[in-house]
Structure formats: structure tokens, C-alpha cells
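ligand=pyridoxal-5'-phosphate
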Amino acid sequence: MIYHSTRNKSLSVSSAEAIAQGISADGGLFVPASIPELSAADFEALKGLSYAERAARLFGLYLTDFTDEELRECTHNAYETGSFETPNVQEIATLADGSMLLELWHGPTCAFKDMALQILPHFLTRSIRKTGIDREVVILTATSGDTGKAALAGFQDVPGTKIMVFYPEDGVSSMQKRQMQTQEGENVRVCAVKGNFDDCQNGVKAIFTDPATQKVLAENGMQFSSANSINWGRLVPQIVYYVSAYVTMLEKGILKDGQGFALTVPTGNFGNILAAWYAKQMGVPIRHLVCASNINKVLTDFIDTGIYDRNREFHATVSPSMDILISSNLERLLYHMTGEDDAQIREWFGALKSDGRYQIPEELKNRIQAEFSGSFWDDAATKDMIGKVFAENGYLSDTHTAVGICAARDYTAHASEKYPMLIASTANPYKFGKAVLEAIGGDTDADEYAILDRLQEKSGMKIPAALAELKTKTVRFRDVVSGDEMPAYVKEKLGIQ
Ligand SMILES: *Cc1c(COP(=O)(O)O)cnc(C)c1O
């Protein structure tokens, strides 16, 4: 499989190069030249396999310069060495209204990002070797909370790598902050940024694409890569879990062969929902995709109007991992849906950079609406839904997932054709314990650990060990910088000038 840049179709790289580089030098994202298709027999053959075995087979379709043995090694290391708390890796829960939650948060940091970030370091270190570059990889990551911790956990003490994570100082939950500040490992560093997620992401992108910095880095035997969902190595493991979820629904008799379903994804950077779209192109019978947003509803507006406009107020919400105004992965969708029109992508994303805005033609908007719809929900609606789902089912959902449940119920209520509904459940509710406890009527006037205890008492759901143990861990990282100071900070900490 060959990969092109969304901003330069004539650029062709291997999967190892795409993963090693993270983002194309022209600012574009790497996309596969074609999307493999699965037949009914292919789905059948995935039945009865473990998650790691399914994943290895599916990776083989996209990462064609890896051997089967290498892929099996990677999936074994990521999914079969005890870092996920359930042997199935992902689980499906069913609510009283028949909708299903695809629980993607049984990994070590309690968010869906573990599904990809537990395997990315294995892909990346092998990719670097394959491309014949003998350099240390420096992972620079901007995070709205969950990516950072998941990337730190994935890369901790991986030989040949260093990782630096930037998060918005006041833009993450206290549990998320604690998880990052206490991260162990010799090769890790964490720093807060005075600003929001987009400031962090812009800072990282600017450092990344600065030729002078790249040159100094190369002279010092280092090279940047990305653990954000702009890296193809992040996206492809996410495609896997949608394919695998479909196979599991077939195995369990929830769906009959070929029966369609609708899928709702709580969305920020458009990575998770884009992975679902790829799964759909591969043959998973997803009849409709619901893009759920909080009040940072740039995607809802885009789907409704065809205008992407980031010039708006940024809101901090109880679903901070979706507090994003620049959804990077939309670029990949538009590239595919315009028939790979790289010139058009350059124009739109140039306009996004210079004016914060672009508009797609009516005809394309209509085609997007045929596959996607979007809706947005504020914090009050989110908390209401957590309370309602708990009252109806005794089931605790996190804030992001609750935004998804709001959107899913709204879609199903209004849809002319009803499909079984699967909702991506993206975080363990304990990760956003304060908002969740408040939503189910608990007293939140306490520190984050007392909140965990109260939530456990009230819900009967067990506190995940990974969060309980934070209490006894030392805070290692307290640095705070402004967005402008990020380049100097990175160079200083890498010991280069
Ligand atoms: C990252 C994240 C999201 C948003 O996912 P995208 O791939 O950025 O759209 C939603 N929920 C949680 C809990 C997350 O960590």
C-alpha cells in the first residue's frame, strides 16, 4: 500500500515512512492510495479470533511493508501483555433502550486513545528501522487531555524515543492533569501551556514544520514524529476496532450477516469518526454516522452548512477532550470525498490557516450529509443524560460518551429508517469523576480522590486501579509556558540550540 499526502498527490511513501514522519513536509496528512475492501468471507474468517489476531490481519491490509510476524509481534505486545483490563480489549454494553455502547476505555489510561497508543510505539520504532534512519525519535504531542497521557504511557521508556507532551493549563480535568504530571519514565516530559488546545496544537505544528529546527535536530541525531491522530499509525488501529466490533456483533447474534447499523461517535479532532468512515468504506455496514459535539460545535455547523469556521469563541466544557475548533482529520475525509483533489485541499486548508474558514460546494455538502449528521449538546444536557442513563440502567457513562448518547437518541428519534445504534464510549467515567458524580446527584465538594470514593459508593462500579494509584504518586512535572515559548522550551529540554 502506497500513501499520498492530502496536499500533494504525487508524493508517494510507504506505510513505514508515513508512520515515521507523522505528517507530510507539505503540511498534508498521509492517506492510503486505496481503501481495501472486505468480503462476507473475510468477516467470517475474523470470527473466533482474539482481538490481537484480528488486528494483525487487518493491519496487514494497510501496513504492507511489515511482515505478518512483525504485525503479530506488535499486536501481541500491545493487546496481550496485560495492559488492558479485559481479555477482549473492547467490550459492548447494551442499554435498556437497545442502544449499544462500544467501550473502548479498558486500557491503561482509561480512554479510547490507548487502543491506538499502546501499539503506535511498536509501529513507530519498527518503521524508523525500516526507513533506514538511525535517529532518536522525538514525539511532540499536543493534547486536550487523553492523548497526552495515553502517548506517555505508550512511549514510556521505549528505547530510541523521547516524548514531550503539551496540554492547556486550565483545559483538562484534574484527574487528567494528575495522570500526566505523575508520569514515570526516563524519556518523558510534560508541560502546561497558557492557552487552549488549539494553541498547544499550533505550537507543536509550528515547531514540527520549522526547517531550521528540523536541521538542528538532524545534526543532533534526532527526528520529530507525532503521536496525534494526524499520524496514520494512530488511525489504522482505530479502524480495526470498528471492524472488530462488527464481527463481535455478528458472533453474538446482535446483527445478522450484512445487517446495517448506525454509529455515533463523540468527536473532537475527527480522528475516531474518520476511522469509522474508513471501516464503512471497507465494507462494515454502517448505514449512518452521527458526529456528536459539545458546544464547540464547529463540526455540527460544518455538516449543516458546508462552512467550516473556526472564528468563534472557544468554550471549556465538561467534555474537554472535545474542546477543539480545528478538527485536523477532516482534511482526510475531504481529500477522499473530492476524488483526491489535492489542489482543492491546499486551497481550503490554506484558507483555514489564513482566514480560519473555508466553504465546500453544495454538491459535496449533500454527499457528506448523506453519510453523516451532526448535533451538539451543552454541559447541562450532558449531565442530564448521565443522570438519566444511570437511573434507567445503573450504568455510568463519562461526559464525552454522554454527549454521544444525546446525539444518538436524538438521531434515532428523528430518523426515517431505524437501525440498531452503536455508540463509541470513549472514556472511563472515573476519568471525569467530578462532573459524573454531580450528574448522578452526589456531593462534589471534595478533592479528586474523595470524589472517586464517593462515585464508587454511589454507583457500585469499581475505581480503576490506574486512577486509584495516582494518589500515592509524586508530581514530577510542573512547568508552564506560553505558546510563544514552546519552541525555545523544546530546544532547551532536548539540549540543542
Ligand atoms: C480524544 C477524545 C475524543 C475525541 O476523539 P477525536 O478522535 O479527537 O474526534 C472523545 N472522547 C474522549 C474521551 C477523548 O479522549
